[in-house]
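re: ur msg from earlier - yeah i can do the zinc ion complex, just paste it... oh wait u already did. ok heres what im feeding in:
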Amino acid sequence: MTSEVLGLIQLGTRLDFLLDKLTKPISAKFPDLDIGISDPLGDPTEAYDSRRDQFHSTRILALLEDHIRSVRFDRLLGVASFDLYVPGMNFVFGEARLPGRVGVISTHRLLPRQPDQTSLLQDRVVKEAVHEIGHMKGLKHCERVSCVMHFSESLADTDIKSPNLCQECELQLKVSA
Ligand SMILES: [Zn+2]
Ligand SMILES: [Zn+2]
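and the outut:
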């Protein structure tokens, strides 16, 4: 199995989460990925919708696909603290090409009520990151609520699911690798 380098890239001028804290958990789930931290990208103003005061995540994917040509990474996962949406939905926790080289997640809706619940935030961010990387690697949504590839419509969905792929998704990943 050839190893690929996934770059974590901060989107926007500030982040509520340290990207370093994602590297270990992600390589534990995807041993074929080397994880690096890319230089941050500024606010993706082209993706901003002022009426909604949110950023269009699909437009961010297009920006990342453009940006990846100028960096040394095989894949890029954008991490933002601003709110993301796709038309037809109030918000999304993240989005990724299926399959593809880019994905994006936001911590905006993942922040715990108590700011000191940092391990809860960590768990949530890891789950959303693993979920989007799963899409980038070709995995679709899984019907098992405990599988990390289950679609999170609300924070409750995210909290219920585990950070792991179920056996079938794991198998699928091996088949398509
Ligand atoms: Zn998904
Ligand atoms: Zn699954």
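cool cool. Residues 142, 144, 147, 149, 165-166, 168-169 surround zinc ion (ligand 2) (CB under 6 Å). ping me if u need the other ligands too
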